[in-house]
Amino acid sequence: MTALSSYSTGTVSVGAGGTTVTGVGTIWNDGSAKPGDILQIGNFQSVISDVTDGTHLVIPPWGGGAQAGVAYKIWQVSPQRFAGAEAMATVNKLVAAFNTTGFFVFVSSIAIVPDPSLGDDGQYALQPTTGKMWVKTGGAWVYLGIFKAFQLTGAWSGATAYEVGDVVTLSGSSYVCVLDHTNHTPPNTTYWQLLASKGDTGATGAVPYGTPAAWVTGHSYVAGPPADLVTHVNGSLYQCLASHTSGTFPADLAAGKWLLIVHGATNGTSVTSLAIGTGSKAFVTQIDLFYKVGARIRATSAANPSNWMEGVVTAYSQDASGATLTINIDKTNGSGTFADWNFNIVGQPGAVSYPIGSIIDSAYAEYTASTSITAIIPTDDTVPQSDEGAEILAASITPKSTTNKLRVRFSGECAPTNADNIIAALFLNSETAARAARYCTQPAGFGNLIMVEHEFVPGATTTQTVHVRVGAAVGPIRFNGNASGRLFGGVNRTTLVIEEIVA
Fold it and tell me: What's the CA gap between 422 and 374, in Å, rounded?
């Protein structure tokens, strides 16, 4: 005879009189335990009333005293384990659902009304294709209406097949279809029901503005409606905000009697007498110009457009007396003092980019005299000083960048009276020690070309001045000729060139 099946994996704990059994190492939710099985701990047994999860069981109050972490056994004798038991339980639930009051009877799309033999009193019938609904009352189906959401289909069209619940618009009104059809124009009440009709045309409102006219003094202006509109200052358009008799336009504007609604031309003028130059310049001009702080403006003389100055607007203020435009001038052309300025918005000058090695600026000086020079520069191993020799040339340049190089080149033809050393030295700004020097030894009376070159990075954008001092070991010496005097009628020149080179 086959023994009863059982399950005893893990251990269990339960309190005295407890209804929850807790397992450790158990797997009860895989069918190992079912409601109706018998739980045995020691000599005490209890029916399992429910399986909560893999480690918890529900039982009637436990009468075997408190148990903690003990062995157990589940005898698998539940009726649910016999064939057909679970299926019957499901059938019972289904039958209960069928017997629920109000359960729908579905009506075929080809039927007009529900089958009278179906359903009980209180039950509903529904035709999904149309949304029609009935309820059975006193043994008969009673029609309740159509319960179907509206379908918004847009403007009515004679080519569209409409169904119940479709909504269309026509001539400003909206209609819902109450009977399936094609090409029956609203408001045919057999097929359409009015949802919302177009309203009557409203009364014409007050005209908000009057006709624009040029502003004049001594005129009575009204805030309306209609509000007076005037043009003033370069064609700008203003709306009257407060009824008043006009005085001066800047004063009325400052008092809040006018509102600027359309800007006219942005370009103003000024008769302020100002000299062309850099720095801050204040121009008395028109009110309500479209100049903002940060805009770049060029002020040009009307009589001669080649005379101009430009810069960035730092202030534009106006009051009852007029307006003032302040420009920080950083770029000019021409010279002189003018009082006929025209203003124009201009672009910001772009940065100029040059390839490395490009010469972007230069300075030049020349010495044409042929005077005897007796000053001495020692021919020894000391740096020439600024109190030695005689200065014959100087040139200045203002670098555009702190990183650019300056290249200095000096050349001159010189002849000594006696056989002698001829020395030339380059000095920078007010420095006392030479930056570069060179000498040549020459027989008496004969000329020779002496050249000195030097490159350096000034590291600043302030003006740099190079001085050339010359002398002999004994003397005297003479440039631009020979020991007797000048040669070539003065076109034989001693020169100094400074070049700024992009680094």
Answer: 11
Report d(CA 493, CA 486) in Å as an integer: 10
Report the helix count and the strand count for the chain, using DSSP H and E: 2, 45
pLDDT at 266 (0 to 100):
60
Q: 158-175, pLDDT tens digit by residue?
A: 999 998 889 999 998 999
Q: What is the pLDDT of residue 149?
A: 82
Amino acid, single-letter form, for residue 209: Y
Q: Cα–chain-centroid distance for residue 307?
A: 40
The residues, any chain, with a CB within 8 Å of residue 110's CB and separated by 6 or more, are none
Whole-number Å distance between alpha carbons of 424 and 147: 113
Distances (CA, A) of 86 to 20, 36, 59, 95: 24, 13, 21, 14
Give the closest residue to 358 by CA, choosing from 160, 155, 503.
503
Does 443 sit behind a cis peptide bond, omega within 30 degrees of 0 on the bond before it?
Answer: no
Cα separation values, 349 from 307, 343, 418, 465, Å: 18, 17, 59, 29
pTM (whole model) above 0.85: no
Cβ neighbors of 486 (< 8 A, separation 6 or more) are 370, 480, 492
Q: Which two tokens stand for residue 150?
A: 């509206």
Please, what's the b/e burial string for 211-232 (b: 16 or more CB within 10 A of its CB; e: otherwise)?
Answer: eeeebeeeeebeebeebbbbeb
Residue 247 structure tokens: 């005085």
